[in-house]
Every structure is written in C-alpha cells, then in structure tokens.
Amino acid sequence: MSPAMTSLPDDTTLTDAGLEARGSGRVLIVACGALAREIIDLRDLHGWTHLDLTCLPAILHNHPDRITAAVRETVQKHRDRYDDIYIAYGDCGTGGQLESACAEMGVQMIAGPHCYSFFEGNTAFAKRDEITAFYLTDFLVRQFDAFVWKPLGLDRHPDLRDMYFGHYETLVYQAQTDDPALTERARACAARLGLRFERRFTGYGDLERHLTDWAQV
Amino acid sequence: MADEEDDIILSELNDEELVEQMFDDLYDGLKDEIEEGVQILLERGWQPYDILTKALVGGMTIVGNDFRDGILFVPEVLLAANAMKGGMAILKPLLAETGAPRVGKMVIGTVKGDIHDIGKNLVSMMMEGAGFEVVDLGINNPVESYLEALEAEEPDILGMSALLTTTMPYMKVVIDTMVEKGIRDDYIVLVGGAPLNEEFGKAIGADAYCRDAAVAVETAKTFVGRKHNQLAAG
After folding, report:
1. A151 to chain B, minimum CA–CA distance in Å?
2. A61 contacts in B (CB within 8 Å)?
3. Do A35 and A130 belong together in one domain?
4. What ipTM does the predicted assembly reach?
5. Any idea where the B12-binding domain is (chain B) (predicted)?
6. Neighbours of A155 (CB within 10 A)
7. Are residues A63 and A152 in the same domain?
8. What is the pTM (predicted TM-score) of this model?
9. Which of A95, A183, B113, B118 is most buried, taking the most CB atoms under 10 A from its CB?
10. Are B200 and A95 a contacting pair at CB < 8 A?
11. What contacts A8, CB < 8 A, 6 or more positions away?
C-alpha cells in the first residue's frame, strides 16, 4: 500500500460527519464529503503523497447557507499546518458567498456552479442549458435516500413526489466510474422519481484538472 | 382501540371547536377533513370569506410560523398547503359570487431557467387567502412574459421567485427592463426564494425580499396600503 492510500469512511459518515485530515502533507484540500472518494482515487492514481484531504459533511449540499462558514472555519483551523490550502467546492448554492470568502482568505476554489457542472466540464455543462434535468453523481446515487428521498419526506409521503418533481423530465446520472450495479441503482432512482433515465459518463472532469494544477504547486 | 382522533365527528363540534379542529387538521395535512369542515361551516351559514380567513388562513398561519421556527419542514408544509387547497377549491367560486373584499392584485411567476414552483405556489395560495387576486404565470418566465402580464393585468404587485443561485440574477434583468421602459415605479416588486436575502433584494432594485409566504402577505398588504394612501393623498 502506498503511503498516499487512505481508508475511506463509509458514505454515511461522509454525509453526516465528513473526513478529518491526516495532518501530513504540504497541501490541504478542503472538500465536500461527496467528493472524498474521487479525490482520494485521483491522489492514489497520481501518487500525490503531499496532498492531504479533509471533508465537510456532504449533507451541507442540502443546506448551502451553511457551507461558507464551515469552509471558512476549516481553513482557519488548518491554515498554519500547510503550505497551501485549496477548496474543492463549486459555488454550490452559496450565491457567490463562498467565492468572496475564498478571495478574502486567499485560497483558490473550483470554478463553476456545482459539481454537476465541473464533473462534466463547465463549458459543456453550461452549453446544455437543460433546466428540466435532475442530476445525480456516483456519491448521490449511493446516498439517494439520505439526500433526496428522506429530506423531501418522500419516504413518509410519496404522494408529494409530483409537487417536487412534476416539472422535471430526466434524471441524468453523471457517472464518475463504470459501475453497472451503480447504474442500475441510478436507473431505479429515476423510476422512483417518475423521470426518464439518462447515464452520462463524465469521469472526474474539471475536478481532476484542478487537482492536477494544485498538486503541482 | 381506535385512536381518539378517529372518534371526532366534525359535524358534532360547535363552531369554535370545529375551527380549532380544522387548525389541527390543516397542521396534519388532512385534506378530506378540511373539505368536510368547510362544507359544514357553509351549511351553518358561514360566509365563504370568513371560512377562508378564520379557519384556513388562521390554520395555515400556524403552519407558517412553525415552519419559520424550524418545528415543521417542507414536506409537512406541502401537505398542509394541499389540504388548504382542497378547502379553497370549494370556496373560490363562492367567494366570487359573494363579492369578498379584494385587497389588491398580484402577477407572480418563477423566473427564466427555473422550474421550481413550490414557494411560488405557497405564496399564491396565501395571497389569495388574504384577499389578493393572483395571476400565476407559472415557471420559467422570460422578461417578455412578465411585461405582457403587467400590461394586460394591471396588477399592484409583481412577484418573482427563484430557487437557484444561477437563476436569481434574472430578477434584475426583469427589473432593469422595467426601469428602461419607465414602468418600474408603477408596480410593487416583491422577490423571494431560498437563496435570496434582503441585501440581494435591495441590490437588484426590488421593493422587498420576502422570506416566506406569510411575510409576502404582510409585506404585500403594507405596500398596497401605502400605495392607496399615497393615491388618496395625491
């Protein structure tokens, strides 16, 4: 096992608690828990042993108003221990507040509105301009109940489904990996929401490009 | 043994008890019970407007307050709204017949690029409950739709809603176009949606940002009252 390899917490832990930094390495990535597996895969693949990772609870995705303060606090907590800190978040519903906070703290973040956009590539995603698509990534397919079904109360009141999703047409599964079992789970999610299913393989998209840049520093 | 709740026969309750029970039923999102309660009050000679304001809006206000305070969440509010909608469907034609007071008129719609209409629908419903005539433009509205509706409907208020940070800037496009055409000050412009805040509302030139449906109703009433006073004074 290479020194860079990390045993990853399970998805539920990444959703609710996130991931603590190891405390070693020159560069710290502060990321959404929904990106933990992808970032660690890339780190291991490229041998970026100097990269450390800490993740905020992925469920903040459902509470974007809490993201900026949580990132700010995490950066402040780790600032003295690393040469550089980077933020693996898009705007993620913060309405520019995260970008302002990052500029103020002098740290870079990922360009783009959210992970759906940077996984596909911001330019390609914007070009699609598809307003009736509901997106899931690998992580969100695995955590569909925690992020979608339960918070919207559909486990208790499935009849509310059309009030939430009546104007959507397609569930787009942005696949970061080739995993037939996960594709079937995504297809089942689409069926539960009453939406047409489409799978798009994105790989790691702009996430890999940003991490590569940050790892070179 | 049957639940105590199951034993309540709405028609056996006096008016006060029935309205209290309707508050509970709205809170629990029980549409059938709300519809039954409305029918009973009508049979007892209540005016449709009184049923709307005292039983339905009264109950929904409690729901709204508990949502604001973090006691209830979106699914419960939706169920309550659905129950209220059932009651309003009975009352609406009667309200038109009985000449219920009209507080003002609002055109409302979700902005271009945004298909999320839960908040807008709640506002529409509560505004109707408060005596406003509401023209609902639905979702994904370009500036032209708003302008056409303003011209055709001559409302007091324009309401715009957005759920996404990527679509909320479009509200400014609409307001700027109204300014360009010299019609901005003819209307009260209210904006709302989860990612918005008061600062954003001010920055884009809206009259007010409304945090939730209850605030939208109160804000609308205040602004319309002010407008009427200005007209009276002028």
Report:
1. 8
2. none
3. no
4. 0.85
5. 103-234
6. 11
7. no
8. 0.89
9. A95
10. yes
11. A14, A19, A36, A37, A40
Give the residue among A197, A13, A29, A200 at the shortest CA–CA distance from A108. Answer: A29
What residues pair up with A171 in beta bridges, in sequence order?
A: A134, A197
Q: Do B75 and A160 touch (CB under 8 A)?
A: yes
pLDDT in tens, B3-33: 555 678 999 999 999 999 999 999 999 999 9
Cβ separation A153–B76 shorter than 8 A: yes
Q: Are residues A32 and A66 in the same domain?
A: yes
Of B51, B122, B143, which Cα lies nearest the Cα of B92?
Answer: B51
Angle at A130 between CA A112 and CA B163, to 5 degrees: 70
Contacts of B74 in chain A (CB under 8 A): 152-153
- A170 and A212 share one domain: no
User: Using one digit for the tens of pLDDT, what is the confidence trace for B71-91?
Assistant: 999 999 999 999 999 999 999
Counting the structural domains of chain B, the total is 2
CB neighbourhood size of B97 (10 A): 9
Can you read off the two tokens belonging to residue A150?
């339960």
Contact B65/A at CB under 8 A? no
H helices present in B99-191, as ranges: 118-129, 143-153, 170-180
Residue with tokens 């507080």: B103
Q: Is residue A2 part of a domain?
A: no
Q: Are A127 and A159 members of one domain?
A: yes
Mark which of B67, B98, B129 sits at the end of a domain.
Answer: B98
Domain annotation covers residue A3: no
pLDDT category of residue B231 using cuts at 50, 70 and 90 = confident
Taking the CA of residue A200 and the nearest CA in chain B, the distance in Å comes to 22
